[in-house]
Amino acid sequence: MRLKNKKIIQLVSNDFEDLELWYPVMRLREEGAIVDIVGEKAEEEYVGKYGVPVTSDKAFDTINPDDYDAILVPGGWSPDKLRRYDSIITMVRKMNEQNKAIGQVCHAGWVLISADILKGKRVTSTPGIKDDMINAGSTWVNEPVTVDGNIISSRRPPDLPDYMREFISVLEKQS
Question: Would you place residue 1 in the very low, low, confident or very high pLDDT band (cuts 50, 70, 90)?
Protein backbone atom coordinates (compact mmCIF):
# COMPACT_ATOMS: atom_id res chain seq x y z
CA MET A 1 0.00 0.00 0.00
CA ARG A 2 2.51 2.55 -1.22
CA LEU A 3 -0.03 5.37 -1.47
CA LYS A 4 -1.99 4.91 1.73
CA ASN A 5 -3.66 8.21 2.76
CA LYS A 6 -2.90 9.91 -0.57
CA LYS A 7 -5.96 11.67 -2.00
CA ILE A 8 -6.40 12.08 -5.73
CA ILE A 9 -8.94 13.90 -7.89
CA GLN A 10 -10.01 12.02 -11.02
CA LEU A 11 -11.83 14.52 -13.23
CA VAL A 12 -14.73 13.30 -15.35
CA SER A 13 -17.23 14.46 -17.94
CA ASN A 14 -19.00 12.57 -20.70
CA ASP A 15 -17.00 11.06 -23.54
CA PHE A 16 -13.92 10.31 -21.42
CA GLU A 17 -11.63 7.60 -22.80
CA ASP A 18 -12.78 4.61 -20.75
CA LEU A 19 -9.38 3.02 -20.11
CA GLU A 20 -7.70 6.36 -19.43
CA LEU A 21 -10.09 6.95 -16.55
CA TRP A 22 -10.60 3.45 -15.13
CA TYR A 23 -7.06 2.05 -15.37
CA PRO A 24 -5.51 4.86 -13.25
CA VAL A 25 -8.37 4.75 -10.74
CA MET A 26 -7.97 1.01 -10.24
CA ARG A 27 -4.16 1.12 -10.02
CA LEU A 28 -4.18 3.95 -7.49
CA ARG A 29 -6.83 2.27 -5.34
CA GLU A 30 -4.76 -0.94 -5.44
CA GLU A 31 -1.90 1.10 -3.96
CA GLY A 32 -4.13 2.39 -1.14
CA ALA A 33 -4.93 5.84 -2.49
CA ILE A 34 -8.30 7.51 -2.04
CA VAL A 35 -9.54 8.50 -5.48
CA ASP A 36 -12.53 10.83 -5.75
CA ILE A 37 -14.33 10.95 -9.10
CA VAL A 38 -15.14 14.63 -9.60
CA GLY A 39 -17.63 15.86 -12.19
CA GLU A 40 -19.83 18.86 -12.80
CA LYS A 41 -22.40 17.34 -10.42
CA ALA A 42 -22.04 14.91 -7.52
CA GLU A 43 -23.62 11.48 -7.83
CA GLU A 44 -24.11 11.96 -11.57
CA GLU A 45 -23.50 9.18 -14.09
CA TYR A 46 -21.06 9.99 -16.89
CA VAL A 47 -20.51 7.70 -19.87
CA GLY A 48 -17.22 7.04 -21.61
CA LYS A 49 -16.60 6.95 -25.36
CA TYR A 50 -17.11 3.18 -25.39
CA GLY A 51 -20.13 3.14 -23.10
CA VAL A 52 -18.53 2.38 -19.73
CA PRO A 53 -20.24 4.48 -17.05
CA VAL A 54 -18.86 6.06 -13.90
CA THR A 55 -20.70 7.89 -11.12
CA SER A 56 -19.09 11.00 -9.67
CA ASP A 57 -18.43 11.24 -5.95
CA LYS A 58 -18.19 15.00 -5.81
CA ALA A 59 -18.81 18.15 -7.85
CA PHE A 60 -16.10 20.48 -9.20
CA ASP A 61 -17.30 23.46 -7.21
CA THR A 62 -17.48 21.65 -3.86
CA ILE A 63 -13.94 20.40 -3.49
CA ASN A 64 -10.87 22.13 -2.12
CA PRO A 65 -7.69 21.24 -4.05
CA ASP A 66 -5.71 21.86 -0.85
CA ASP A 67 -7.21 18.61 0.46
CA TYR A 68 -5.67 16.54 -2.36
CA ASP A 69 -2.22 15.31 -3.34
CA ALA A 70 -2.78 14.96 -7.08
CA ILE A 71 -5.16 15.35 -9.99
CA LEU A 72 -5.77 13.17 -13.05
CA VAL A 73 -7.27 14.36 -16.31
CA PRO A 74 -8.57 11.59 -18.58
CA GLY A 75 -8.37 11.72 -22.33
CA GLY A 76 -11.06 11.17 -24.90
CA TRP A 77 -13.27 14.10 -25.78
CA SER A 78 -13.94 15.01 -22.16
CA PRO A 79 -10.92 17.37 -21.84
CA ASP A 80 -12.48 19.68 -24.40
CA LYS A 81 -15.50 19.92 -22.09
CA LEU A 82 -13.57 20.05 -18.81
CA ARG A 83 -11.42 23.00 -19.87
CA ARG A 84 -14.52 25.17 -20.22
CA TYR A 85 -15.10 25.22 -16.44
CA ASP A 86 -13.39 28.05 -14.57
CA SER A 87 -13.33 25.90 -11.44
CA ILE A 88 -11.28 23.22 -13.27
CA ILE A 89 -8.79 25.75 -14.61
CA THR A 90 -8.41 27.31 -11.16
CA MET A 91 -8.01 23.86 -9.58
CA VAL A 92 -5.30 22.78 -12.03
CA ARG A 93 -3.40 26.07 -11.67
CA LYS A 94 -3.52 25.90 -7.88
CA MET A 95 -2.30 22.31 -7.83
CA ASN A 96 0.51 23.26 -10.19
CA GLU A 97 1.51 26.21 -7.98
CA GLN A 98 1.64 23.80 -5.02
CA ASN A 99 3.80 21.39 -7.07
CA LYS A 100 1.23 18.60 -6.72
CA ALA A 101 1.20 15.75 -9.22
CA ILE A 102 -0.83 16.43 -12.37
CA GLY A 103 -1.46 13.47 -14.64
CA GLN A 104 -2.61 13.92 -18.21
CA VAL A 105 -3.02 11.36 -20.95
CA CYS A 106 -4.00 11.63 -24.62
CA HIS A 107 -6.18 14.73 -25.23
CA ALA A 108 -6.03 15.74 -21.54
CA GLY A 109 -3.28 18.18 -22.46
CA TRP A 110 -6.03 20.55 -23.58
CA VAL A 111 -6.93 21.17 -19.93
CA LEU A 112 -3.30 21.97 -19.05
CA ILE A 113 -3.07 24.24 -22.10
CA SER A 114 -6.17 26.16 -20.96
CA ALA A 115 -4.70 26.39 -17.45
CA ASP A 116 -1.57 27.91 -19.04
CA ILE A 117 0.88 25.71 -17.15
CA LEU A 118 2.90 24.12 -19.96
CA LYS A 119 5.40 26.86 -20.83
CA GLY A 120 8.90 25.40 -20.70
CA LYS A 121 7.66 21.89 -19.83
CA ARG A 122 8.64 18.67 -21.60
CA VAL A 123 5.46 16.69 -22.30
CA THR A 124 3.81 14.11 -24.50
CA SER A 125 0.23 13.54 -25.63
CA THR A 126 -1.67 11.96 -28.46
CA PRO A 127 0.05 13.17 -31.63
CA GLY A 128 -3.28 14.72 -32.64
CA ILE A 129 -2.72 17.64 -30.23
CA LYS A 130 1.06 17.89 -30.67
CA ASP A 131 0.77 21.34 -32.31
CA ASP A 132 -1.51 22.58 -29.52
CA MET A 133 1.03 21.45 -26.90
CA ILE A 134 3.91 23.11 -28.75
CA ASN A 135 1.93 26.33 -29.27
CA ALA A 136 1.32 26.38 -25.50
CA GLY A 137 5.09 26.68 -25.01
CA SER A 138 6.03 23.09 -24.20
CA THR A 139 8.57 20.79 -25.76
CA TRP A 140 6.60 17.85 -27.15
CA VAL A 141 8.17 14.39 -27.35
CA ASN A 142 6.81 11.16 -28.78
CA GLU A 143 7.40 8.88 -25.78
CA PRO A 144 5.09 6.57 -23.78
CA VAL A 145 5.41 8.73 -20.68
CA THR A 146 7.20 11.94 -19.79
CA VAL A 147 7.80 13.40 -16.34
CA ASP A 148 8.73 17.05 -15.95
CA GLY A 149 8.58 17.99 -12.30
CA ASN A 150 4.99 17.52 -11.14
CA ILE A 151 3.52 16.95 -14.62
CA ILE A 152 3.25 13.36 -15.77
CA SER A 153 2.04 12.97 -19.35
CA SER A 154 1.30 10.03 -21.60
CA ARG A 155 0.13 9.39 -25.16
CA ARG A 156 -2.63 6.76 -25.27
CA PRO A 157 -4.09 3.59 -23.68
CA PRO A 158 -1.24 1.20 -24.61
CA ASP A 159 1.08 3.47 -22.59
CA LEU A 160 -0.99 3.32 -19.40
CA PRO A 161 1.30 0.86 -17.53
CA ASP A 162 4.29 3.19 -18.06
CA TYR A 163 2.16 6.23 -17.19
CA MET A 164 0.91 4.80 -13.92
CA ARG A 165 4.34 3.52 -12.89
CA GLU A 166 5.72 7.07 -13.19
CA PHE A 167 2.65 8.74 -11.68
CA ILE A 168 2.84 6.46 -8.62
CA SER A 169 6.59 7.13 -8.33
CA VAL A 170 6.03 10.90 -8.33
CA LEU A 171 3.31 10.56 -5.68
CA GLU A 172 5.53 8.40 -3.48
CA LYS A 173 8.19 11.12 -3.48
CA GLN A 174 5.78 13.89 -2.44
CA SER A 175 5.90 14.72 1.23
Answer: confident
Of these residues, 101, 106, 111, 133, which one is catalytic? 106
Q: What is the pLDDT of residues 14-53, one digit of tens each?
A: 999 999 999 999 999 999 999 999 999 999 999 999 999 9
Please give the tally of structural domains in the chain.
1
Q: Which of 6, 81, 107, 156 is flagged as catalytic?
A: 107
CA distances from 125 to 7, 57, 62, 65, 105 (A): 24, 27, 29, 24, 6
* 106 carries an active-site annotation: yes
Domain that holds residue 39: 7-173
**Residues 7/68, Cβ–Cβ less than 8 Å:** yes
Q: What is the pLDDT of residues 14-25, one digit of tens each?
A: 999 999 999 999
Cα separation values, 19 from 65, 67, 73, 96, 137, Å: 24, 26, 12, 25, 28
- Kindly report the CATH number assigned to the domain that includes residue 113: 3.40.50.880
- For residue 57, is it within any domain? yes
